[in-house]
Write a structure and sequence with these properties.
- It is a single chain.
- This protein is mainly beta.
- The protein has two domains: 38 residues; 225 residues, no CATH class.
- The chain contains three helices and 18 strands.
- The longest helix is centred in the first third of the chain and has 20 residues.
Amino acid sequence: MKTFNYNKILFSALAISILSFSSCADDDDDKIVPSVIPTPTYTATINLTQYVNDSVLQMNTTDFPYENALMQKFKVTKFQYLISNVTFTKSDGYTIVDEDYHYVDLTDSSTLSYTLSTKIPAGSYTSVGFTFGFDEDDNQSGIYTDLNTLGWNWPAMLGGGYHFLRLEGNYLDSTNTSAEFKTHMGTARDNSVTPPTFDINHFDVSLPSSSLTVTGDFSFDIEMNIEEWYTNPTDWDFNVWNAPVMPIYNAQKTLNTNGPSVFTFKQ
């Protein structure tokens, strides 16, 4: 994925101004040419935090401390996801996009902080957003060596590309017995038509109440509220969609439509 080079554009603008000044200097040595002062740029760091039912997520608990919207109790044993294209938007619609991606694994604390490779220009921004997973251009099978090594690939028979989410654990089923769930998200395969069709299934998030003013290096939190994957607008029944859900089109589309409400912004 290519990274937007804001500094390169500013350098080019400065070079053009210098050339213009040089070409006119012989005509009128008394003219005053205003200097071009590049807008300073700063480093953005994102802290990725996870909550369930208003509490910080605890992994691999012995009990079942969490509930979904249907009051089904569950615990979490694995949690991994991917975001890309973090975007800063100004009031006039102008955007700065970090065209990179970041993989999060709760068993690796180093992945819970993400420093963007794109420097963010000073100024005021009305919102921050990102893509959950990869969009259609970026979700191409086998092209990211690090993700291949992690086994993050999505099966070719289901449309290929990569996983966007792995959320696994156990829940108490209708007989109050522990059962496994594997909430995996990626390309959605629709078998109701012949030949099957595929929905890329990523979604874009514009974080509510995420305005900020950049005057130096800065950081903010993106909070994920895990129980929201299982509601709003569709309540998820673990007894129906447990494991596996990767081949189930309606399950994949439900994750897509439930997903945007999962995230909040904190600074």
